[in-house]
Design a protein that fits this description.
The complex is a heterodimer. By secondary structure, chain A is α/β, with parallel strands linked by helices. Helix content of chain A is about 35%, strand content about 30%. Chain A has a 6-stranded mixed beta sheet, sandwiched between helices. In chain A, a hairpin with a 2-residue loop joins strand 4 and strand 5. By secondary structure, chain B is mainly alpha-helical. Chain B contains 13 helices and no strands. Classes of the chains: A alpha/beta, B mainly alpha. At the A-B interface, helix 2 of A face helix 1, helix 2 and helix 6 of B.
Chain lengths: ~300, ~290
């Protein structure tokens, strides 16, 4: 069966325990998230929200305490599930004894790329990220921006169908950021799903089509960015929303923000708002009000995370 | 999915063996970059040169030639001299060579577990144990090359000098390598649990000493007064690797060509190593990074 989502998590949770007292420290809490194939998705959240733990669970570097994570319909604990994924970690530490070309060759071998293919892909990727002249130079001589670009090349070298980037432009100067964005823009239309974990709202807003916000380990918002930030859009306040309506709204790309005991459903257009209202009412949901709205992603982010604090 | 993508996917699956090779090659590259590789081979070369120098000393060279030109009795003396030299070198290599190799290898496991490096490695489509086993094998191969070089060179030098080719000396290579492999399991275990190279060396060196003490069990059976302490001593003796016993068997074989029990120290030490390595792989598989 062809998978519907590049990433799917169902009630994914991670609890850490303090070393001596065994106190529970929940890092990620019941996150159910679906990332359709081929989209650009941004995961946002304040520091310590659990974003990196969430990403590491997707790639099996961290074992979930509850729930499941799958990539293209395959449980991420299965090594084969990670084969179509390329990953650029946050605060990566590539082996400094390798040259740029050597590093790409090593990681692509681990990704299972045959040697003939590696010989072709390594110079190709070095060219793509503008490091061809540096291919034989040891990584310890590279600047932060060069390391990020090399890391991106590493993530792309085996032609992944899913690219997971953890803070890809962190610590990179504006020129370097632009280069990274240009490389990622080059993937548009290739069918590659891009999942970016970032705290840079502007970057996610400019690049991604979908976004989700994690706060204190909980998913507080998700949807199409156009819906989330809809200028001239509409905000529907719902006091009761049945589960099937919630699923249907999410599938339709609605941004859903919990506010106190109620929910706010964001719609980009008047027609979409009416569709959402029909969905809610047909499922027996209770609408309190509807009003026109206009927000930036930053407004949405602040509202979502503040709502979490109020709760 | 396009046919190009399908071809890439099938190619990816075919090259699983390449993954193991890449991990081993990476261990070599890291050992080279950290100067461990050169350090080990440099020290081995120094030993070989010292040995060559010693053989060039008039007293030694003279003694060898005098023994060689005298009759049968003298020829036997040469043989005894050569065998004694071999057994001394084998024991030297067994103790100091193993300790040195442990010291050189101790950092190669924790370095893989550094934050920012391990997360990327684990994101690759490989089973976690493969990652550690690749490192383990890489370490063993580095030390194997070093032992081949050192023992082989000394064997050739003595052979050329005395015209006596005693293949029994070459047993030192597998014996030393085997014990290194067993102790490397401990290094790997401590490395996975604590991520500390220094602690790995400390515990492994302590294990070598403890194993030598436990091997004095015949003496201890007489010295220990209570039944349970004797049982405990025996139990510990059988659990721990037989560092001392294997050394004794190796030395006796090289010196006297006696038909000794190699099997017991080998299988008990191997069992210890396997259990410890399995423990390391299990803990590594369960850990969060």
């Amino acid at each position: 069966m062809t998978p519907e989502y590049a990433i799917e998590t169902v009630q994914l949770g991670k609890v850490y325990y303090s070393r001596f007292r065994g106190r529970k420290i929940p890092a990620v809490n019941d996150v159910t998230l679906r990332v359709p194939i081929g989209v650009k998705f941004g995961l946002l959240g304040p520091n310590g929200a659990g974003k990196t733990t969430f990403v590491k669970m997707l790639l099996s570097a961290v074992h979930p305490s509850s729930g499941t994570a799958s990539l293209f319909g395959r449980n991420s604990q299965d090594p084969e599930a990670r084969r179509p994924a390329g990953y650029l970690p946050e605060n990566h530490r590539f082996p400094t004894y390798l040259t740029g070309a050597g590093m790409l060759d090593f990681y692509s071998a681990l990704s299972g790329l045959p040697s003939g293919e590696r010989r072709r892909r390594v110079p190709e990727l070095l060219e793509l990220v503008g490091l061809r002249d540096w291919s034989d130079v040891r990584i310890k001589k590279y600047s932060k921006g060069m390391l990020q670009r090399l890391g991106l090349a590493q993530a792309l070298i085996h032609r992944p169908r899913l690219l997971i980037l953890d803070e890809p432009t962190d610590g990179v100067d504006p020129v370097g950021r632009r280069q990274i964005r240009d490389i990622l823009d080059g993937l548009t239309g290739s069918g590659v799903t891009v999942f970016i974990n970032s705290h840079l709202l502007g970057e996610v807003e400019a690049f991604c089509e979908y976004a989700a916000i994690l706060d204190k380990g909980r998913l507080v918002l998700e949807g199409k960015i156009s819906s989330l930030t809809a200028g001239g859009g509409y905000r529907i306040a719902v006091s009761y929303l049945p589960e099937q309506a919630l699923a249907a709204l999410r599938k339709a790309g609605a941004a859903i923000i919990p506010t106190g005991g109620a929910l706010q459903v964001q719609a980009a257009t008047c027609e979409q708002a009416n569709e959402f209202i029909d969905t809610i009412r047909n499922a027996g949901g209770l609408i309190e009000s509807m009003q026109a709205s206009s927000s930036s992603l930053e407004d949405v982010f602040i509202r979502a995370t503040q709502a979490g604090k109020a709760a | 999915m396009s046919s190009a993508q399908a071809n890439v996917d099938s190619g990816l699956r075919r090259s699983a063996a390449g993954v193991f090779g890449a991990l081993i090659a990476d261990t070599f590259q890291e050992a080279r970059a950290r100067w461990l590789f050169w350090g080990l081979f440099g020290l081995s070369t120094l030993l070989i040169l010292i040995f060559l120098f010693v053989l060039k000393i008039d007293l030694v060279a003279g003694a060898i030639s005098i023994m060689g030109i005298e009759g049968t009795t003298r020829a036997l003396d040469v043989r005894a001299f050569v065998l004694r030299s071999y057994s001394f070198i084998a024991i030297f290599l067994y103790i100091w060579g193993t300790l040195l190799a442990i010291f050189a290898s101790s950092g190669l496991i924790p370095s893989v577990l550094e934050p920012g490096r391990i997360a990327l490695l684990l994101s690759k489509p490989l089973n976690r144990p493969v990652l550690i086993l690749g490192r383990y094998l890489g370490n063993v191969l580095i030390v194997a090359l070093n032992h081949l070089y050192l023992v082989g060179a000394i064997w050739i030098i003595i052979g050329l000098k005395t015209h006596m080719w005693e293949p029994r000396f070459l047993l030192a290579i597998p014996a030393c390598l085997f014990m290194f492999g067993v102790l490397l399991c401990v290094v790997t275990f401590i490395g996975v649990v604590s991520e500390s190279a220094a602690l790995s060396v400390m515990i492994t060196a302590a294990l070598m000493v403890i194993s030598a003490i436990l091997a004095q069990r015949k003496l201890m059976m007489r010295a220990l007064s209570s039944e349970w302490t004797r049982d405990l001593w025996q139990a510990l003796y059988w659990i721990f690797p037989k560092f001392y016993d294997l050394a004794t068997v190796m030395m006796q074989t090289v010196l006297f060509n006696r038909d000794l029990d190699w099997a017991t120290p080998l299988w008990t030490s191997a069992a210890f190593g396997l259990v410890v390595l399995s423990g390391a792989l299990y803990i590594f598989s369960k850990r969060d990074f």
